[in-house]
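Structure catalogue
Derive tokens from sequence
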Amino acid sequence: MDGGPSRSPLLPERHPSSDFFVCDVLDAVPKGDLASMEHPIFSLSTKPDTRLRRYEQGDHFVEVSPSVKGLATVHDRDILIYCISQIIAAINEGRQVDRTIRLKAHDMLTATNRMTNGQAYEGLKAALERLRGTTISTNIKTGGTETFDVFGLIERARVVRETREGRMQELEIVLSDWVFNAIEAREVLTLHRDYFRLRKPLERRMYELARKHCGHQSEWSIGLEKLKEKCGSNSTLKEFRRLVKSVVQQDEAHCHMPDYSVRLVERKADVEKVVFANRQTMERRSDATRLPPPLSGETLQAARQIAPGWDVHVIEQEWRAWCLDKDCTPHSPAQHFLKFCLTWAERRGAA
């Protein structure tokens, strides 16, 4: 039950906003890695999901295998988002980082808008087990590295200290190389803080996709069937439509979806599309020092070979606009630009 038309679809803000900014540990903007925002790695189910998944897009594939306790869920992902946020904050401050992160369980629970009772701590342990047990085989590129590997979302997690009542105080989490490569390459996007207040896993997944594909554009649309695939939903198309329609109706009544409004429209040949419209609530990054630096003459010459006939300076302007729109600071600007040129040439053909 949705609790009636007057009830907000958002979870209550369980902890005052000021607590989130108290000190270094919590002063991090939520971040999500682009690779897992694109592919449905996390389960939408609140019950153990033991399905083997394989997704293909062009020459990339992702195969996700659950443990006996099921796949990591969209809500389990909060732990990764929190870890990513802390590492990005450290990088921005010029501190050394590595795959191992030590944190306080209470800080994580409050930052991700969770309860802090005994049940929440038990839930955190279960989430860590699912994150460690979910195995991924992929050739997705992160940080300029093409990975053909099998790994978990986290390599290890352990309780460093417990209270007398047995509740966790400190955790030590070792991220996988894949996730850490994405962080170091700044292949991340800022998430709205209300992401943690979205009740439904489907709402969170829809927001993630809009955040990646719409970005700062005015609008982005996707076919209903394609959205179902990208969400990793196990529902029939009819049931998935009902679930999306429920999100749309609640958003129309409460405007609760962060950054983007959402609507369902019918196009030609009875093809339904889900349309996300930018609410213009996101701040564009204004720190010019974090934009890609000037490209060398050698890089521009290599670009001319990749995209013959095109004005590489025009492509460079488009690339910089894309980086700004996606809040992307490439770890290897020259390599990132040349890859952008290749995609540009493939999509547009010869000039």
